[in-house]
User: Fold this.
Amino acid sequence: MSTASLAFSGAGPIAAATRQRVLDAAAALDYSGPNPLGRQLRRGRSGIVGVVVGDSLRRSFRDPVAIQVLDGLVSTLGPLDLGVLLIPGSSDPSGPAVDPLLETAAMDVAVIMWGGTTDDPMLGALRRRGTPTVLVEGQHAPDVASVGIDDRGGMRQATEHLLALGHTRIATVTLPFDRCRGEGLVPPDEMDHLSWEITRRRLAGVTDAGVTPVAIWATPASLVEHGRSAGTALLTGPDRPTAIACQSDLLASGVVLAARELGLRVPEDVSVSGFDGLDLPWLAPDVLTTVVQPLAEKGAAVGHAVADFLSGAGPSTRELPVTLRIGTTTGPAPEVS
Amino acid sequence: MSTASLAFSGAGPIAAATRQRVLDAAAALDYSGPNPLGRQLRRGRSGIVGVVVGDSLRRSFRDPVAIQVLDGLVSTLGPLDLGVLLIPGSSDPSGPAVDPLLETAAMDVAVIMWGGTTDDPMLGALRRRGTPTVLVEGQHAPDVASVGIDDRGGMRQATEHLLALGHTRIATVTLPFDRCRGEGLVPPDEMDHLSWEITRRRLAGVTDAGVTPVAIWATPASLVEHGRSAGTALLTGPDRPTAIACQSDLLASGVVLAARELGLRVPEDVSVSGFDGLDLPWLAPDVLTTVVQPLAEKGAAVGHAVADFLSGAGPSTRELPVTLRIGTTTGPAPEVS
DNA sequence: CGGTGTCATCGAATCGATTTGAGGGACGGC
DNA sequence: GCCGTCCCTCAAATCGATTCGATGACACCG
Assistant:
């Protein structure tokens, strides 16, 4: 048995001839390699990384950002012989706060995409199980690894770009504020109900540039249709903004579509900026002005954080840089009418 | 130990008081429930369903169809205490034909989205391991379960709709022919190199309606940009078609965008139909005429096929119906000029 | 021929749970 | 007081591999 084990695992000294003999015997006996379950138990490792994807799979998967990060992650994990187990986030508030998989599935490391708040019940569950955790775009905590980008600086750059073009009436369309909030204008007194770290940071970037938005519109998710309704509302309301800085590209492209439908020219009448740096073929021939984040690298960074844990290192923190890409959807502010 | 086991698993007779006593002791000892690895080994089940997603994660995840089916699958599998392990399909032809995960990962059942050909090396690997397999949109084989939709009938309906509108010059934009083929017109003698079952079926639907397409344009993937270049090519070429039947909604929306860019009116100058029934917010206010397939139900059907296997039943076959949704992108054929 | 190194073989412990059966304590019913 | 039921406790086998040490076979070198 020891020899067979060595023949399959390749660890330890074994002659090529013996190895082949073992493999032949295995084939003759219809033995298709070591049972992963036994191996995992013995090794104490499952080779599985649990990845919690946003509220609902469907919703978060319509989000190309999550997809591309996930792709970068899978590509990095593959060579390490690690697999990705999909774990749905808490879909509806009435059900259990954490998916049973998070409590019971075998996994060596957990990754939470779209990390929420520090007191997230998922973090509690993972801590209880002693599962090392990587948080993406979340609030930093001492015992979890973090991967993020310079949200704040990126949004500041985008806003400064608009300022430089002479815009003064700047509105902003944000990602969700918390799990429950619907869409619509955010009154000033509700600014504290902001439990999503990523929304907070990108909003702070606008302020950093010295801008107080003439309107803040929150959306329930980063989807084109929500951008469209946000754009329609903002552009038909009183005191129309001349520029709209959006917290995601999908939202921004919705705003652009809304503007076009209203007969407004982009960027002559209204400038629109996004965040993420996606390819948006349906906006052609326009190219969105946006803050480009390295999505695949972000996934790779998560992969490296996972690898750190597995090699015994403690939690690590990584922040990736962003760059402003100036497209055709932003231009000089229109003359005051 | 037996009592503790019963307390956690809930199987067998145990008094509520004892159960609580065990749970308290566990909490005091920092024991966070049974180790899944031990449990899995003993049970002989991992509770994991391996799902092979298209060529590249990035690419196939940009495909909303796969995402929504995956979502339906995860929703169905959750209550059964099953998790989904993501397995990348063979990304590049130079690398190994099957992902190592497929060979070594612990899984009770495997699912192949976008099932390819019968001699797919993945099927071979799974057969060798004795892993029950569910094939989605693939060629039926005796020992695997199949889930599919009425591709052929759906495409036939769409084509008949175009015929009824008086179109005679009908072109078609197809999904990939095989793993390697690039994009472009398909010469008649290459029609045999069609190794993708889904492409073949949808093409057959056109023929069933009695139509011989004036042009068949194959694409490397179901993406908006490929639809766009297909549309540009077909609409600027000689003998312009008056209707283009596409094998996916993303391709169709690319064709619509191309038409608009060329100054052609949809549907006055050219009619476009799709397949899938996605929401395409960026096409607004147009609504694509398309063959709607029940995506979430398709995922659920896969889940049931998986459940069948786990309950000891043999491979099952399911085919879901489709419906034609008539939108605003198809209209009467233009007068002959 | 002795010494050395390489590698196959054998036996046994271990990972952590599940499951079964035997045995026995507690309790209620008659 | 006896019997039956319910349920806890204890011991042991099992799932399938990995890993360690000891032993032995064999070839090669000096």
In short: The domain at 48-149+294-322 of chain B is CATH 3.40.50.2300 (Rossmann fold).
